[in-house]
Design goal:
The complex is a heterodimer of chains A (140) and B (411). Chain A has 140 residues and is an alpha/beta fold. Chain A contains four helices and nine strands. In chain A, strands 1-9-8-2-5-6-7 form a seven-stranded mixed sheet, with helices on one face. A two-stranded antiparallel sheet of chain A has the order 3-4. In chain A, helix 2 (67-76) runs parallel beside helix 3 (91-100). Chain A is globular. By secondary structure, chain B is an alpha/beta fold. Chain B folds into three domains: 5-176, 2-Layer Sandwich (Aconitase, domain 3); 181-282, no CATH class; 293-407, 2-Layer Sandwich (Aconitase, domain 3), CATH 3.30.499.10. Helices cover 42% and strands 13% of the residues of chain B. Chain B has helices at 5-11, 17-32, 50-66, 94-109, 120-123, 138-146, 157-166, 195-209, 227-241, 258-261, 274-282, 303-313, 330-339, 341-346, 363-370, 380-385, 398-407; strands spanning 38-40, 44-46, 75-77, 134-135, 168-170, 184-188, 216-219, 247-248, 270-272, 293-301, 323-328, 351-354, 374-377, 392-395. A five-stranded parallel sheet of chain B has the order 12-11-10-13-14. In chain B, strands 8-7-6-9 form a four-stranded parallel sheet. The termini of chain B are far apart. Classes of the chains: A alpha/beta (140), B alpha/beta (411). Chain A binds chain B through residues 8-11, 25, 29-33, 40-43, 60-70, 72-73, 75-77, 88-92, 94-96, 98-99, 104, and chain B through 25, 28-29, 31-33, 47-49, 52-57, 60, 136-138, 153-159, 173, 210-213, 238-242, 359-360, 364, 384-385, 387-390.
Chain lengths: 140, 411
């Protein structure tokens, strides 16, 4: 049974894909090996995992401004996440998503999405309407 | 979002494609943060190294150039990724250098001034109180907001560029009085003693704040900090917490007293004691380990830091198996050349790079080409960033960094 999560109106197109979830934060510069398409920062909860074409579900954005260019660069090589959902975004990731054409949403009414959405869940993300739908659960 | 008639024409493409792109970008970002309108800005500062842009980003800039794009306000740049006078020696490739050359050519054609610095507030044109600007580099933004009282969000390269092209930015976040009020309160019980201590303190506060939307207010600072102290403090706080603004009561211009930054009853304070510094630093402690590269960067060194470093290195030689990289701005480097500081630093075996910053220089490839794993720095910011690039970072004071470079192992 699907579950509908309301959020702030976001950036980008409607997409559908599988969630990759961690109660952690995100920076393309600090956390990723963008050539290999994996999380490369040893301290990150998603260390070693491929983020390509996944819907990242994380707490917030961190670190510097580089992610604003990097998302666009990653997308150009087909090595980008499909979408990013945050509890709360910072300015940089929103700007980067806008340039890259990667869907991004934040500000969920139901609370902490890193607890509500599970790794592997099938999601539909509609930034224009401010709606994320959990279509199916991969776990339990 | 409310737009003026002129802005509507800009958004409709009546003044060309680059302006249309810039308006669409700002409207999209503004909507995300509930901006009601645009605000004019006096300057823009763009982060844009070739590693971050990649060929796709450079193509994008060249597209703006071929469509007649020109900035309409003073616009300057953050450090480059390649020092074109010294890159083969670092194991950087021709491909990296040629991408950098294309990027520079495109920026120049757009009318951007290639200042290549993340310390523009110390070297180029410091903004003033209540000055709306569109700055990139988090260290630049947090310093300008906090120490100078200017008003900027973290602007990534594309957004800074949109502001440069239009002279505007969406009015949200730190352009609004309400978002500049304090949200957290800290009391310092252990006074920072040097730049590294200030960096650690910034890292502690940043980690506890942990969000762009928190505004830490700090009390208990007994001695007026220097510009370089504030530079390291802010850069580390922004790096660890993505925090763009802090207030220090009695020091920074918007916080003459506690009441000025908290409406109503201030929140309970969190004290920061010596143990906090110790435990923060502990994970970066690798005394006795061989050190591959000592880096002074992030932020670029001021003239005063360059002078201190020259004094520490006078008549000394760094270890043959250890490299030392010193990053400063082109204008500071020119002053250092004239004053003999560059020579004194480089006589030790260190290398001064002009207009770059280590972590923006294809750090992964550079590390692999040189066999650099163990990196030592006095910058709390760089030791936070660099582990994702495959380095093992350690943190020490500038003096300890120099002694370690001479011995070839961390002292």
């Amino acid at each position: 049974m699907s579950k509908v999560l309301k959020c702030h109106v976001g950036i980008g197109q409607k997409v559908r894909g599988r969630a990759m979830v961690a109660s952690d934060n995100f920076s393309a510069r600090y956390d990723l090996d963008r050539i290999k398409g994996v999380f490369s920062r040893p301290a990150h909860k998603l260390y070693g995992q491929s983020y390509v074409d996944r819907i990242l579900v994380l707490n917030t954005a961190k670190g510097g401004v580089a992610s604003a260019w990097m998302l666009h660069e990653m997308k150009s090589r087909g090595m980008a996440p499909l979408a990013i959902l945050f509890n709360q975004t910072n300015t940089i990731l929103a700007q980067g998503a806008a340039l890259a054409g990667i869907s991004l949403c934040d500000g969920f009414e139901a609370g902490d999405i890193t607890q509500i959405i599970h790794d592997g869940d099938e999601l539909s993300v509609d930034p224009e309407s401010g709606v994320v739908e959990i279509l199916g659960t991969d776990t339990d | 979002m409310r737009l003026t008639e002129e802005e509507k024409a800009m958004a409709a493409g009546e003044i060309g494609q680059p302006i249309k792109w810039a308006m669409e970008h700002m409207i999209q970002v503004g909507r995300q943060f509930d901006a009601q309108d645009l605000v004019t800005v006096s300057q823009a500062h763009m982060m844009g190294d070739p590693e971050s842009l990649g060929p796709a980003g450079v193509d994008f800039l060249e597209g703006l150039v071929s469509n007649g794009g020109k900035v309409c306000i003073p616009m300057i740049t953050d450090p480059r990724g390649v020092d074109l006078s010294y890159y083969k020696e670092l194991g950087q490739t021709e491909e990296m250098a040629s991408l950098e050359r294309r990027l520079i050519a495109a920026c120049r054609a757009l009318g951007i001034l290639m200042t290549n610095t993340c310390i523009n507030y110390q070297t180029i044109s410091a903004p003033v109180l209540r000055d709306h600007v569109a700055f990139g580099d988090t260290g630049v933004v947090i310093y300008s907001n906090s120490v100078l009282g200017a008003r900027s969000n973290f602007e990534g390269g594309p957004s800074a560029l949109a502001s440069g092209l239009t002279g505007r930015t969406p009015r949200y976040g730190l352009h609004l009085d309400a978002k500049r009020q304090g949200t957290m309160r800290f009391t310092i019980k252990n006074q920072p003693k040097d730049l590294t201590d200030w960096g650690i303190l910034g890292g502690i506060v940043g980690r506890l704040a942990g969000s762009y939307w928190q505004v830490p207010v700090i009390e208990g600072v007994e001695n007026t900090p220097t510009s370089d102290d504030m530079k390291h403090f802010g850069a580390a706080m922004a790096s660890y917490g993505s925090v763009p603004l802090f207030h220090i009561v009695g020091v920074t211009p918007e916080a003459p007293n506690l009441a000025a930054v908290f409406s109503g009853t201030p929140p309970a304070t969190r004290t920061i004691v010596e143990e906090d510094y110790r435990s923060f630093k502990e994970v970066f402690d690798a005394r006795g380990s061989k050190v591959d590269v000592v880096v002074f960067a992030a932020p670029q060194l001021s003239l005063l830091e360059m002078s201190t470093l020259a004094q520490l290195l006078d008549d000394r030689r760094i270890h043959s198996k250890t490299a030392m990289i010193v990053c400063t701005s082109p204008s500071v480097a020119a002053d250092c050349d004239r004053m003999g500081l560059t020579q004194r630093i480089e006589d030790s075996g260190a290398k001064v790079l002009r207009g770059t910053c280590f972590y923006q220089q294809f750090a992964r490839e550079m590390g692999e080409a040189n066999g650099w794993r163990r990196l030592l720095s006095n910058s709390t910011k760089i030791v936070n960033i660099i582990s994702g690039y495959g380095y093992q970072p350690s943190l020490a004071s500038m003096e300890q960094c120099v002694e370690s470079a001479i011995k070839g192992e961390i002292v």
